[in-house]
């Protein structure tokens, strides 16, 4: 997006946001929402279902105005937009707003369910940090059971052969891929296809599903297994907007949050269908077997936590206590 266009888009959103929390009618409040991913892609569809549920159950009390995806606010600028109240609600991966506060990058390393985080105090610990560092409320994960994979357009046979390759990345896996000798390239989701087409990258990191949504299957030859990390995508909310919600508005929002968390199980069957679809499209699997595969995944987590704790020496160990398995 050209700079002039981007400034106009965000400026217009900011102007409109000035009245975001004002009642549309006597008691109805309207919240503005943006997704870091294009509309109707796998990472946005549950967010859109959440919005529909709020708007259906909250008539006259609470409504969410869905502005759209990255065409409204670029993916890597959404965290700041939510923090500053340009929009009230965002759908984003933690790595996409690590520029706001680096602790958000820890969510990819979670090995426990949201139910366990709510039981063990992790949810509260996350929000203490999100509130203080980002003026954000972490509301709910809405994209689960989906590790990341490396998708390549040339064959390799072992992890060492990744060294020197140009891989599209986000801050999510910079530490891991850099440790493997990869030349990392930052590209927004909607620009990956062009980067592949022009030879700017040899591959990209992505979850199992939605490569067809972005047309990436046409430029992809191989998927590397095993997958690693947790490709979370979560609802975040401007903390001031969150605090202004009345009990009646929370009575609409909270059940919608519980519902959207419950349908995360859908991704197990979605990913199975997507795996078959990729095979049918001719995408071949490169599989690191046995101990080599286990070491590949183990190193991903080791390098991830090592980098996170180096950037966040106070909060990194706290987050690891809740997010990592005890085994």
Q: Could you please describe the fold and organization of this structure?
A:
The protein is of the alpha/beta class. It has 2 domains: 3-146 and 231-267, Bacterial extracellular solute-binding protein, family 7 (D-Maltodextrin-Binding Protein, domain 2, 3-Layer(aba) Sandwich), CATH 3.40.190.170; 148-229 and 274-323, 3-Layer(aba) Sandwich (D-Maltodextrin-Binding Protein, domain 2), CATH 3.40.190. 42% of the residues lie in helices and 19% in strands. It has helices at 3-17, 42-57, 78-83, 114-120, 122-134, 174-179, 192-197, 239-244, 247-262, 266-280, 290-311, 315-323, and strands spanning 29-35, 62-68, 89-92, 136-143, 148-152, 166-169, 183-186, 203-207, 222-228, 233-238, 284-287. Helix 5 packs antiparallel against helix 12 (315-323) and helix 11 (290-311) packs antiparallel against helix 12. The chain is globular.
What labels would you give this structure?
five-stranded mixed sheet; D-Maltodextrin-Binding Protein, domain 2; alpha/beta; disordered N terminus; 327 residues; 11 strands; 42% helix
**Beta-strand residue fraction:** 15-25%
Number of strands: 11
Runs in which pLDDT lies below 50 for 5 or more consecutive residues are 1-25
CATH superfamily of the largest domain: Bacterial extracellular solute-binding protein, family 7
Task: Compute the number of helices.
Answer: 12
């Amino acid at each position: 997006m050209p700079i002039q266009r981007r400034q106009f888009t965000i400026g217009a959103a900011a102007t409109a946001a000035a009245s975001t929390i004002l009642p549309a009618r006597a008691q109805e409040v309207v919240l503005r929402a943006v997704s870091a991913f294009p509309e109707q892609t796998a990472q946005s569809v549950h967010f859109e279902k959440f919005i529909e549920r709020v708007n259906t159950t909250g008539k006259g009390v609470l409504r969410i105005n869905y502005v759209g995806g990255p065409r409204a606010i670029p993916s890597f600028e959404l965290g700041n937009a939510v923090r500053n109240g340009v929009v009230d609600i965002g759908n984003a991966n933690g790595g996409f707003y690590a520029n706001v506060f680096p602790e958000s990058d820890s969510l990819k390393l979670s090995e426990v369910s949201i139910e366990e985080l709510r039981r063990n105090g992790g949810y509260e610990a996350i929000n203490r940090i999100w509130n203080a560092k980002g003026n954000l409320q972490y509301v709910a994960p809405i994209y689960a059971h989906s590790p990341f994979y490396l998708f390549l357009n040339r064959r390799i046979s072992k992890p060492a052969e990744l060294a020197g390759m140009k891989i599209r990345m986000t801050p999510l896996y910079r530490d891991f891929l850099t440790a493997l000798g990869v030349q990392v390239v930052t590209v927004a989701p909607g620009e990956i296809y062009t980067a592949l087409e022009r030879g700017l990258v040899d591959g990209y990191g992505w979850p199992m599903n939605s490569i067809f949504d972005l047309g990436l299957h046409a430029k992809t030859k191989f998927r590397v297994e095993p997958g690693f990390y947790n490709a979370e995508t979560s609802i975040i909310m401007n903390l001031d907007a969150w605090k202004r919600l009345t009990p009646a508005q929370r009575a609409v929002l909270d059940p919608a949050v519980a519902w959207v968390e419950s349908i995360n199980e859908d991704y197990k069957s979605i990913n199975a269908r997507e795996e078959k679809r990729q095979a049918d499209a001719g995408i071949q699997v490169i599989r690191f077997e046995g101990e080599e595969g286990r070491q590949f995944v183990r190193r991903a987590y080791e390098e991830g936590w090592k980098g996170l704790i180096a950037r966040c020496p106070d909060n990194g160990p706290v987050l690891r206590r809740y997010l990592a398995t005890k085994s």
